[in-house]
Design goal:
Blueprint (H helix, E strand, L loop, with lengths): L1 E4 L6 E4 L2 E4 L2 E4 L4 H6 L8 E8 L3 E7 L6 E7 L1 E8 L10 E7 L5 E4 L3 E7 L3 E8 L8 E3 L20 H4 L14
Antiparallel strand pairs: 1-2, 2-10, 3-4, 5-12, 6-11, 6-13, 7-10, 7-12, 8-9, 8-11
Length: 181
């Protein structure tokens, strides 16, 4: 695996080594010791998987209580994955990092605690898999509007399928101090 800092150095793009032959391929997607060598030491305690159709936009979500680091990938299809820095004292506060993740490139994105996270499905459908550094805690769940002009994420053109909850999320400037890290 190779580890590549993104526009926000704490958000890391991980490119696994792929071993292919006529049978298919093999790839190691996680090794605790190798991740630790690259500064990723959070233990993962929960794995999640979701399937979404083209045009689905999920996010931008985070947990202010029991914050979650995440290791995300698309095991089928293609997504545009985005992480927004909500750490008040960070030099990259309010900015985003993004990467295309797909079953073809097999890339993963590590998102530390303190970030809102979301993704947009580019293919007919996508299966999205991720490891979490803490358990889902609905009482601590928060979010920020996906199309907030102050963050200005350049989402691809096209249909937007959002949940009612995601449509109602506050804008970046509406977040209270207690809703930031």
């Amino acid at each position: 695996m190779t580890f590549h800092p993104t526009e926000i150095p704490d958000v890391i793009l991980i490119k696994p080594k792929i071993f292919s032959d006529e049978r298919g391929y093999f790839s190691e997607t996680y090794r605790k010791s190798l991740f630790a060598e690259h500064g990723i030491t959070k233990d993962f305690v929960q794995d999640n998987i979701s399937k979404s159709v083209k045009g689905t936009l999920r996010g931008l979500h985070y947990q202010i209580e029991k914050p979650q680091s995440k290791l995300v990938s698309a095991t089928h299809g293609r997504i545009l994955d985005v992480a927004v820095d909500l750490r008040k004292d960070s030099p990259t506060f309010g900015t985003y990092a993004m990467a295309e993740l797909s079953e073809e490139n097999k890339h993963m994105l590590y998102i530390p605690e303190g970030f809102a996270h979301g993704f947009y499905v580019l293919s007919d459908f996508a299966v999205f898999q991720y490891k979490c550094g803490d358990y889902y805690y609905p009482q601590g769940e928060r979010g920020v509007k996906w199309d907030d002009p102050d963050i200005a994420i350049p989402w691809p053109e096209g249909e937007r399928i959002l949940s009612a909850k995601d449509k109602a999320l506050p804008g970046f400037k509406e977040l209270k101090s207690g809703d930031l890290f």
